[in-house]
Amino acid sequence: MSGDFNDRESQDREKLRRMMRASGISAAVVIGFAAICGSVLWLFLYCRIEVPSGHIAVLTKKTGQELTNGMEIVSVAEFGNYKGIQEKVLTEGRYFYNPWSWSWDIVPQVEVPENRLGVRVRLYGDDLGYGNLIAENATQKGIAAEVLRPGRHAINAIVYEAGTKPKPNRDNFIELVELHEPVIVPAGFKGVVTLLSSPPAADPNQLIVETGKRGVQKQTHDPGVYYINPYVERISLVDCRSQRFNLGTGGEMGFPSRDGFWVKLDGRIEFRVDPERAAEVFVTYNDSVNDTGSDARVEEEIIQKIILPNARSFCRLRGSDHSGRDFILGEKRLKFQEDFQQTLEATCKTQGIEIVQALITRISPPQQIALPVRERQIALQMAERYEKEILQQDSEKQLRIEQELVKQKQALVEVDQEVITVTTEAKRQQEVAVIGANQRKKVAEVELMAAEDQAEAITAKGTADAEVIRFENQAVAAGWQKSVEAYGGSGDEFARWVMLKKLAPSFRAMMVNTSDSPLMNIFNEFSGISPMLSPTADKSDETETPATETPAAEMSVILPTDPNTTESGEKE
After folding, report:
1. Mean pLDDT across the chain, nearest whole number?
2. What is the mean pLDDT of residues 184-204?
3. Which residue stretches of 251-323 are H helix?
4. Hey, which of 58, 356, 358, 478 would disulfide with 270, CB 3.0 to 4.6 Å?
5. What segment(s) does the record annotate as region Disordered (predicted)?
6. CB 536 within 8 A of CB 567
7. Is pLDDT at 229 greater than 70 in this prediction?
8. List of residues 6+ apart from 444 with CB closer than 8 A
9. Closest C-alpha to 305, from 265, 351, 266
């Protein structure tokens, strides 16, 4: 009994241990599931970072190593290793970070509007070297060389317009973005490039420096839109279109003539800057006082420094070589005008200016000699006019004579043409008549030959027909001769045979009352011709009734037979 009790007790203890072990596992599972659910809930509610479209998340590390003295922010390479603002930002999306170690701030992305560009100013990094103005590397502090095009950029920065001060609304930004307008080079302009932060040129006293060196570049920009950093490069617009101005704009244009008279003139000059030498003209003649923004108004300097001095110099030097009356006469004035344009073109071309047209519109000669010279000139012109009228009348006279000669020649030509026409028509009619006569002759000859052939054919046919008739007659006569010879050469016998041959087919039978009837006497003379009568006699015998059966006074009916039947009763 005690042994059984001990076994039962041990079994109960084993069951109790199993129950306790099972309850522990279940509790652990429940606790683990609750921990997982709590972790997921805590992660989703407190660790989740939702970055909407058009925004970024700026991260700040709360734990980790302290920043060194040379560090303003934590670079991307050291992300998460140091405390402080991180250079790396989170773009649109969902992220999970531990709020005990991290803090974040959702801010809008940098947006550069249309027709704008953004200049980045980094507030962190290594200091620039001596004399450097632009941060060439991404690890340097200062103005970045590259610009931001219109659009959104995931950069932790504050945006502000150029010429204003930035107004930050937070203290965790690491860059500034300054908005500028792009440079637009219109049609007809050239953009002169000036590099502001490149290495200095070997010879800084040159007007145009080497390509890529600090200063004005020889290569210019064509019309278009250019997104350039205004701290790196400056574009000055030079108008290369045609410009026009009057010589009187700079004051009265005058000079003394060779004989001491004062001559005044006015004109219109059209010019333009040579596009290939726009940079040279800009550096040589530009005055910043006249500039409006990026528009370099070099045309004012060109007029005042190139065209007007050259025009005055030509007028005073060349004008003093002529007397006052030379400027009244047309030929001298025209020659002066041509020399003025040629000289001005050659002089300005060496300075990068193209003269499109240089026209003198008015020359005021001295009044003391203007009236006499004008009257003399009018008299000369009237004399030339009269001479021209005389020449014109002579020309008209000669023209009339030539016109009459032409008419006479035309009449002769018409008569000759008519004679030729009549002669040609007569010849044509003669040829037609000869051709017709020849044709009729040919036809008559052909008809004569045809008639002869036809006569020969008729004669041949008549001869042939006569021969046929003769041969037929000979054949018939020969037949008759043979037939007569068959009857012993007696023609009468042959004639009787022919008659009976014609009559026999017309009778089928003949019955008479007696053999000595007078009717039978007709055939007595033919009783000896058995061949002719045998068919009829046979038929009569076949149809004849015995004397005992037929009355003596009975007459038979003569039935005509088919005339086309032969002696045997068959048709031929």
Report:
1. 79
2. 88
3. 278-285, 298-302, 308-319
4. 356
5. 532-572
6. no
7. yes
8. none
9. 351
Overall pTM > 0.90: no
Taking the alpha carbons of 386, 388, 394, 400 in that order, is the dihedral positive or negative? Answer: negative
CA-based angle 248:258:341, to the nearest 5? 45
Contact 266, 247 (CB under 8 A): yes
What is the reported pLDDT for 159?
94
Token digits of residue 259 = 């004989």
Q: Residue 171 half-sphere exposure, CB side, CA atoms within 13 Å?
A: 1
How big is the chain, counted in residues?
Answer: 572
Lowest mean pLDDT among 46-50, 89-93, 194-198, 376-380: 376-380
Q: Tell me which H or E stretch contains 496.
A: helix 491-503
- pLDDT per position as a tens digit, 235-291: 999 989 998 888 877 666 777 777 667 777 778 889 999 999 999 998 888 876 666
Alpha carbon 87 to its chain centroid, in Å, reads: 56
pLDDT at 367 over 70: no
Give the residue from 220, 200, 222 showing the smallest Cα distance to 210. 200
Look at 69 and 10; give whichever has higher pLDDT: 69
pLDDT at residue 323 tops 90: no
Q: Which residue has the tokens 């005058």?
A: 254
Closest CA to 262 of 331, 319, 313: 319
Contacts of 240 (CB under 8 A, 6+ apart): 188, 189, 190, 272, 273, 274, 275, 278
Considering just the CA atoms, what is the radius of gyration of the chain in Å?
74
For 502, residues 6+ apart whose C-beta sits below 8 A from its C-beta are: none
Contact 97, 59 (CB under 8 A): yes
- Cα–Cα distance, 49 to 92 (Å, whole number): 10
Rounded Cα distance between 441 and 144, Å, is 120
What's the mean pLDDT in 445-464? 87
Q: Is the pLDDT of residue 541 over 50?
A: no
In Å, how far from its chain's centre is CA 114? 36
